[in-house]
Please model this.
Amino acid sequence: MTQYVIHGGKPLSGHVAISGAKNAAVAILPAAVLVEGVCRLENIPNISDVILILDILERMGARVRRVNRSTVELDCSGIRSAAVPEEMARKIRASYYFLGSLLGRFGKAEVAMPGGCDFGFRPIDQHIKGFESLGATVDIVGGNVIADCQSGLVGSHICLDMVSVGATMNIMIAAVLAEGLTVIENAAKEPHIVDLANFLNSMGAAISGAGTDVIKIRGVRRLKGGSYSIIPDQIEAGTYLAAAAATGGCVTVDNVIPRHLACITGKLREMGAEISEGDDSVTVCAAKRLHKTNVKTMPYPGFPTDMQPQITVCLALAAGTGVVTEGVYDNRFRYTAELCRMGADVQVDGKVAVVNGVEKLQGCTVKACDLRAGAALVIAGLAASGTTVVEDVRYIQRGYEDIIPKFRGIGADITAIEVPDGPTAAAAG
Ligand code: EPU
Model:
């Protein structure tokens, strides 16, 4: 079992290069099942969620060639089965994208109900509604989702009941080879939605409107192979910017798309940090103590829920009282109990956290309960005085490539240590 040991209290400074976007990669890789021929994907993040999806593809019969650390070549022509191995599918939420791609390719799909971070009930009814609207029957049998449409999917008009990243992407994937036109209304607009559309279009799909709330997909007969480079990770970049702000440092994130970060940098600016943008970089400097603001998480272009724990750490150290409202999930404040053990003053009532800023945090042993909560505890440890030990870092490894060398590169005193496996209370990510 790996733990991170952090000697905190030092302002971070320097440059950090941002990797490819996790939530784009974990959709694009399953979508490659639709492609005939070799598909070369660049800027793939080297994280455990991606490694698991590549393992699933390989187990199903795809040829996966690692060209280098961030580039893979995939040939999915050898996939013969429309079922994803259950024990693998259950480990990762993004396995649900195989429902869309296998249904699109084979007219059937069988995938275990997805796991994922525990933020309360996370249904996939909108994915199912979309597949049914395209003509599939969908049943849940023994914990598996079984979708079937032997006569072939037919395009249709789908209005999502709520803005869902996963449902938007999954319906897009399924509809690419369907007959005729599919329209998704109330679609999510995240940068990774646009990235998936760009990937599919570069392989021959006909998708328009991605990045707006109406996406149109005109079915094509086939997708051919090609090359595609994944966008930089908005949340990874935001995490380093928040770490810079929380430690009173000055950090530049390189290889980013600054407009994807506007919702995050806007909040840091409101809190008194100085932000400057280059063509593909953003710098945050926090020379003075941050001050309070209020944050409400929302679908893009709102403030991302996946940055909520990290900005809460900034607020925990800011002057004044800020209110954080979680607008996406029912239960995404569990990590605040750990933060309070470090001296933070956070009171949670349902989907609202009232954060009374304190002058400083004290290091102690804390446990990550999910990916972004884990990242937030690392930031708290970097800002705190004394030593912080973060346990259950496997959650963090799901989504942050090279987090230790990257933080060390900007001056952090953080080390990964191996300890014997002990009992762990955490559930599968
Ligand atoms: N929802 C439904 N029904 C559905 C789908 C969603 O009720 O069929 C609800 C969810 O329960 C949630 C809200 O709608 O309350 C939004 O869920 P969404 O579908 O947008 O989220 P997701 O696709 O399950 C992805 C990311 C999450 C990120 C969210 C929101 C992946 C694999 N996961 O999840 O990423 O929080 O979008 O942006 O792409 C993370 O990276 O740490 C992470 C949790």
User: Anything to note?
Assistant: DSSP finds 14 helices and 23 strands in the chain. The first strand starts at residue 2 and ends at 7.
